[in-house]
Amino acid sequence: MLAVPLFGLRLGFADEGNYPESTTTRRAYDLVAEGFGPGYNGRLVLAAEMVEGIDEASLTAITGALDDDPGVALAMGPIMNDPQAPTAVLWQVVPATAPQDSQTSDLVHRLRDEVLPPVVAGTGLDVSVAGPVAMNVDFTDYLGERLPIFFAAVLLLSFLLLMVVFRSLLVPATMELLGDRNWWMPRWLGRVLPTIDVEGEGGNTETIGTAGSHSAAEESTLESV
Question: CB within 8 A of 174, min separation 6: which ones?
Answer without folding.
Answer: 182
